[in-house]
Amino acid sequence: MTSVAEPSALLALQRATHATLQILTAKLADLDLTASEINALAILADGRGRTISELGAAAGTRPTTLTSVLDRLERRGHITRGARPGDRRVVVVELTTAGRQASETIRRTLSELESRALAGLPAEAIAGFHTVLRALAEVSA
């Protein structure tokens, strides 16, 4: 009798991420956004402006990679980029009214999906999951 080994944590995380992105893309299809654009708007949903470096760190993306995402979001009227008061060399990304509306829809959809996915799991399991995610993020930093 052979047993099937559990997939590695990273492969399981990759599959879960892919499935989550498919669900989000389908649920948010009316917004006509890419996964990267959804991620950026979700990070900005708290209404706090961020520098491109801060946004890149929160998204797990290099600022140079993020630039094309921000270009698209700016063209579509979801964000503005402007100089930080007192330091014109620093660019701050902020949501527009349209961006706030889209980000609220994204935040609500993420919250609903997370609630459905984690319903019934004990708090210790969820805390352990967050510990694993932090450890993986620290290894890649």
**Cα-to-Cα separation, first versus last residue:** 42 Å
CATH top level assignment: Mainly Alpha
**Which blocks of ≥5 consecutive residues have pLDDT under 50?**
none
**CATH fold descriptor:** Arc Repressor Mutant, subunit A
Write out the CATH superfamily name: Winged helix-like DNA-binding domain superfamily/Winged helix DNA-binding domain
Extended strand count = 3
Number of helices: 6
Helix-residue proportion: 55-70%
Rg, alpha carbons: 18 Å
Number of domains: 1
The average pLDDT is: 90
Largest sheet: 3 strands, antiparallel
Series of H and E elements: HHEHHEEHH
Structural class: alpha+beta
> Strand order of the main beta sheet, please?
1-3-2
What's the short story on this structure?
The chain is 64% helix and 12% strand. By secondary structure, the chain is an alpha+beta fold.
Question: Which tags fit this structure?
Answer:
alpha+beta; Arc Repressor Mutant, subunit A; three-stranded antiparallel sheet; 12% strand; globular; transcription regulation
Structure description:
The protein is an alpha+beta fold. The chain has a single domain, classed as Arc Repressor Mutant, subunit A. Helices cover 64% and strands 12% of the residues. It has six helices and three strands. It has helices at residues 9-27, 35-44, 52-59, 63-75, 97-118, 123-140; strands at residues 50-51, 79-84, 87-95. Strands 1-3-2 form a three-stranded antiparallel beta sheet. A hairpin with a 2-residue loop joins β2 (79-84) and β3 (87-95). α2 (35-44) crosses α5 and α3 (52-59) packs across α4. The radius of gyration is 18 Å and the shape is globular. The protein starts with 8 loop residues before the first helix and ends with a helix. The mean pLDDT is 90. Keywords: DNA-binding, Transcription, Transcription regulation. Residues 6-138 form the HTH marR-type domain.
